[in-house]
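Q: Convert this sequence to C-alpha cells.
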Amino acid sequence: MVVWELTSARLRRHLFYRSLLTDPRAAKEIRLFGLGGFLHGRLIRVLNDATEAELAVARRGALVQSAFAALNALVAGLGTVVVVAGAAHGRFSIGDVTMFIAAAAGV
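A:
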C-alpha cells in the first residue's frame, strides 16, 4: 500500500512537471521569472527518486524469485537423490526414477 501511495505521488509530480513543460502560459511565466534551472533540478531529482524506487522494487522481486528458484532446485535435487538411492536398493524401478525426474522438471 505504501509503495502504491509513493508511486501515485511521484506520478502526480511527473504529470505536474510535464504540464509545466507543455503549457504555453507556464512556459511564459517560467521564462519571465527565470525558474527554468530551478524546475529542471527538481524534475531531475523527482525522476531519480522514481527510478530508484522502481529499481528497489525490481531488485527485491529478483531476490525473492532467486530464493524460490534455489529452494526449488534444492528440493528437486534432494528428491532425485532419494529416488535414485531407493532405486539402487530396489524400492523404486527405473520408470519411477524417470517419472520423478520428469515431474521435477515440469514443476
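The longest helix spans residues 36-88.
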